[in-house]
Amino acid sequence: MSETEEIGAHERRTAVTQELVREVGDALEAHEATQVRALVADLETPDLADLIELLEPEHRIGLIQTLGPDFDFEVLTEVDEKVRDQLSEALPNDVLAKAVTDLDSDDAAYLIEGLEADDQKEILDQLPQGERAALQRNLLYPEETAGRLMQADFVAVPPFWTVGHVIDFARDAEDLPETFSEIFVVDPGFHLLGSIDISRLLRAKRDLTVDKIMDTDRHIVLATADQEAVARQFERYGLMAAPVVDKNDRLVGVVTVDDVVEVIEQEADEDAKLLAGVGDERLSDSVRQIAPPRFSWLFVNLFTAILASAVIALFDTTIESMVALAVLMPIVASMGGNAGTQTMTVAVRALATKELNPANIVRVVVRETAVGLLNGMAFALIMALIAVAWFGTEQLGLVIAAAMLVNMLAAALAGIFIPLALDRMGFDPAVASTVFVTTVTDVVGFFSFLGLATLWLK
Amino acid sequence: MSETEEIGAHERRTAVTQELVREVGDALEAHEATQVRALVADLETPDLADLIELLEPEHRIGLIQTLGPDFDFEVLTEVDEKVRDQLSEALPNDVLAKAVTDLDSDDAAYLIEGLEADDQKEILDQLPQGERAALQRNLLYPEETAGRLMQADFVAVPPFWTVGHVIDFARDAEDLPETFSEIFVVDPGFHLLGSIDISRLLRAKRDLTVDKIMDTDRHIVLATADQEAVARQFERYGLMAAPVVDKNDRLVGVVTVDDVVEVIEQEADEDAKLLAGVGDERLSDSVRQIAPPRFSWLFVNLFTAILASAVIALFDTTIESMVALAVLMPIVASMGGNAGTQTMTVAVRALATKELNPANIVRVVVRETAVGLLNGMAFALIMALIAVAWFGTEQLGLVIAAAMLVNMLAAALAGIFIPLALDRMGFDPAVASTVFVTTVTDVVGFFSFLGLATLWLK
User: Fold this and answer.
1) A119: number of Cβ within 10 Å
2) What class does CATH assign to A287-456?
3) Hey, do A18-143 and A156-262 end up sharing a CATH topology, with the first three levels equal?
4) How many CA within 13 A on the CB side of residue B247?
5) Beta-strand (E) ranges in B218-335?
6) Which residues from chain A sit within 8 angstroms of residue B345, using beta carbons?
7) Is domain B18-144 annotated with CATH 1.25.60.10?
8) Distance of CA B447 to CAs A44, B6, B307, B384, Å?
9) By its UniProt entry, which Gene3D superfamilies does this protein fall under (chains A, B) (predicted)?
10) Which residue in B11, B297, B323 is closest to A319 by CB distance?
11) A&B contacts, CB < 8 Å
12) What's the DSSP call for residue B250?
């Protein structure tokens, strides 16, 4: 096996080092084409994509031009959207047309979707008929739908063909996809009748007709379906591929699991980031791109913090008469915030993965409430002991214990019901849950602690 | 197409309703076997798995026994680990042996991995030779490795066979996997020489030998490799399948992308949960299972909160003389905490996906620091205006502005350097970053605000 790479216990990081980026940049600067080619010769597609992202913008085009026909345009489907748009605008249309011919239709659509309509047309006009039709089919559907994600090139045969006929056809046809794992059976109107995994085709007798061995029990995807819904179904039902149909039930393409892997990763990644208020940031984004959205999120949180301060201000005379309250009050709020975040994160992820549903919702609410109560009692006791030891007044221990219990319970309830309510109202619970939950735990935390202190410590 | 299901704009939730769970439970109670069968007849594998999880434990076995030979044991590979262990312990060994025969080797390993050694042996002894060997190969490797994830059943042929020979072999052999997307070429010692996608095999001339058309440029996976490392490579290089070899470079199985989808989802999901301190919880876990680990996380956070309180206590006389400080101080700490969480989440996810690497680390650190400074200045100004308007003293505005700027900068630095340091030291940054970052932002927030107030407001 030449040029293989083993995936071992120590995961290989990207092959692109700072040094390589500098060397390639220098070689491009000096117009050392042979040197440039030698430096990137061993890079695989995703590595070359990394390198292009890390190069100075003016060197990116230079690299592609230097590599000329050796450059694999699949690389451009793996760079960040902004870099891709910069490059597809800078490259001449005939180079792009050549690139598009070599790519699968979903990758080709990805490459030219950002171009002006007349540039798109000029490129499409240069394509062979079959490929143009496939690519136009992809471009017909909006981004983030199954229609855009699908491969519009596929193998479809009529039901009366024999296995031998199909195999001969596959052997002789010129314009088939490079690899394919199944063959679709359609009627003359291109309505899907069934599909055949090709390992099954390989093993069937040559004189059987395909309608005898086709699989008719399939998950079908609507071309307009959201890509996250598609990904969820692939995951749930362990699908390898699913046929895509238009609104007239005509077969228009096939989505395969490798297209879906990235969608699944993105979706879970997005939730982690949305919960922290960093939305759909990318690591290659600039300061100017990320500072304003982060500001907006922090600005919303500032209102939460000010609301909490207003609650504290209600009790300023109590605090003045006993400064220990000011010392201890952040503990109650912070413990509530952390406990609320625990429950909320579980709820948000369970909603995203559709694990939380009417059949188990009551059980989960009861469970979260019970955990809130149990841990609330535990921390009430612990904090009471600490407060008494620290400040020497038993009443203060009683106050903080009661406030802690109240806030931990409030945290559990807010943590579960706020995401549920947002979801029910049609909002993405990952976007806004954090703000609402911490508002609840801050306000309840300060109000219960300072309020009880005002009542009991007079 | 009979029994198909379209994935449309409105994602279908699970087919299992509370009503169905109750009806099946009642029918089992009443021993109405026909009724039970009718109720579950239309459920697909993952739906039936959901139903089993939601049934009372004593009804689960009843359902499997009622369905008898109609029960598809693949269902048990999709239920939660605890439920699966309960069922595989309760079912007789000969039923399990029958089930194991019907499953792929990775699923079979999953089903019996929790059993006692002698039960495992009894089941293995009842299997045909080929399947026993494959299953034993899977069981040889620890959980969460490529060796456990792989399908140990695969098609391997010698390099001198012709395409026609391979096709005839595939047509006649009895013990091949149900479907397969590629064929491996091996030497007599089972060392991997190459592989052939079967769509390529289908299209090749029958008299070519396989070594002429095999692909030798492949990503190979070590059987002992961690499944997350494997998943990362699948995603990065867009792999559909990868051959798995043992430490002597012998081919022992194949990992396919559908096995990897779940690992990818789990991994991103885990990070979101680890950041919130809810580790590897499952929605079906009980109060007793989740309360103690959540307690531990909150307990660690309690120290953070107490440390922050100790900082406040340093300045108790300052607070006593100006209670407005107690009112405003949580704002500085909370804004720092939120800003730090933003940077930290970006860093943790970028480390997990290997996007953050030596080639871009300096740029990311500079970017985060710049964003911290910019947003710090913005919120310094906003809070200064609010504080002056609220309490009417300009000096207080100056103090909170300076403290806000200092804390937002500290938040950015802590948010990026703490995950980096944990990663460098070999810890998972998702586990502990939150605690350290909020400790920094709380301590710096209270210390800078109250400290500056003590210096400047005398």
Assistant:
1) 15
2) mainly alpha
3) no
4) 4
5) 219-222, 241-245, 251-256
6) 272-273, 275-276, 278
7) yes
8) 51, 59, 11, 18
9) CBS-domain (3.10.580.10), MgtE N-terminal domain-like (1.25.60.10), SLC41 divalent cation transporters, integral membrane domain (1.10.357.20)
10) B323
11) 416
12) B
Kindly list the distances between the CA atom of residue A27 and the CA atoms of A16, A46, B120, B231, in Å, as whole numbers in the listed order.
Answer: 16, 21, 61, 35
User: Does the beta-carbon distance from B219 to A290 stay under 8 Å?
Assistant: no
Would you identify the CATH topology of the domain A18-143? MgtE N-terminal fold (1.25.60)
Q: What is the dihedral of CA B5, B10, B11, B14, to 10 degrees?
A: -80
Give buried/exposed letters for B275-289 (b at 16+ CB in 10 A, else e).
bbbbbebebbbeeee
Contacts of A21 in chain B (CB under 8 A): 359
Nearest residue of A to residue B359 by CA position? A18
Q: Which residues does chain A have within 8 Å of residue B344's beta carbon, measured at their own beta carbons?
A: 276
**Residue B39 parent element (H or E):** helix B33-40
Residues facing residue B241 across a β-bridge: B256
CB B261 within 8 A of CB A235: yes
Residues in chain A: 458
Judged by CB atoms closer than 8 Å, whether chains meet at B313 and A305 is answered as: no
Task: Tell me the C-alpha distance between B45 and B456, whole Å.
Answer: 69
First-to-final CA distance of chain A: 83
Closest by CA position to B106, among listed B47, B79, B49, B146: B146
Q: Which two tokens stand for residue A92?
A: 């001449």
Tell me which chain A residue has its CA closest to the CA of residue B338. Answer: A298
Element (H, E) at A254: strand A251-256
Q: Which of B197, B221, B298 is facing A179, going by the closest CB pair?
A: B197
Closest CA to B105 of B72, B153, B73: B153
Q: What ranges do the domains of chain B cover?
A: 18-144, 156-257, 287-456
Q: Classify the complex by whether its ipTM is higher than 0.95, answering yes or no.
A: no
Supply the DSSP string of A168-221, one letter for each residue.
Answer: HHHHH-SSS-S--SEEEEE-TT-BEEEEEEHHHHHHS-TTSBHHHH-B---EEE
In CATH, what class is B156-257? alpha beta
The one-digit pLDDT tens for each residue of chain B (458 residues) are: 333 445 443 334 456 788 888 899 999 999 998 999 998 888 888 888 888 888 888 888 889 888 888 888 888 888 877 788 888 888 888 888 888 888 888 888 888 887 888 888 888 888 888 888 888 888 889 888 999 999 888 889 999 999 989 988 888 887 777 778 889 999 999 999 999 988 888 888 889 999 999 988 778 999 999 988 898 888 888 788 899 999 998 999 999 888 888 887 777 778 778 888 887 788 878 888 888 989 998 899 899 899 999 999 999 999 999 999 999 999 999 999 999 999 999 999 888 877 888 778 888 999 999 999 999 999 999 999 999 999 999 999 999 999 999 999 999 999 999 999 999 998 888 888 888 999 999 999 999 999 999 998 86
Which residues in chain A are closer than 8 Å to B8, comparing Cβ atoms? 222, 224-225, 229
Could you say which DSSP state residue A252 is in? E
Q: What is the DSSP letter of A75?
A: G
Cβ of B225 within 8 Å of Cβ of A13? The answer is no
Residues of chain A with C-beta less than 8 angstroms from the C-beta of B199 = 170, 179-181, 198
Selected for mutation to probe chain B from A150, A261, A288, A396 (highest B CB count within 10 Å) is A261
β-bridge pairing B5-7 and B156-157: unpaired
Overall size of chain B counted in residues: 458
> And the tokens for A353?
């993965």
Distances (CA, A) of A140 to A184, A417, B181: 22, 40, 31
A195 φ, ψ (degrees, to nearest 5)? -145, 160
At CA A277, angle to CA B231 and CA B363, rounded to 5? 70
What are phi and psi for residue B9, nearest 5 degrees? -65, -40
> In the structure encoding, which two tokens stand for residue B135, read together?
């299953």
Placement of tokens 């080797």 in the chain: B105
